[in-house]
User: Fold this.
Amino acid sequence: MQTNRFLGDTVGRTVIKLLVISVLLGMVMSVFNIAPFDVLYGIRDFFVRLWESGFAALGRFGDWLILGASIVIPVFILIRVLNYRRS
Assistant:
């Protein structure tokens, strides 16, 4: 019973679902000529480039966060105040 709750379904059905998804993903990766090591190397290269760039990418992310929050937070507060008045 614990296994079914952990997997979200019976063991047999979960194995079949995983097999089908694996075959479909393998076909897609084959079509695009992607090998599993290409994915691993891509992840490694991402972190190497991030390290070499001095974390400039994270700075841009922070800029985007502040820019978006300057609009989202006031709108959220305004909506909450207007909904509070109706209640």
Observations:
- The first helix runs from residue 2 to 7.
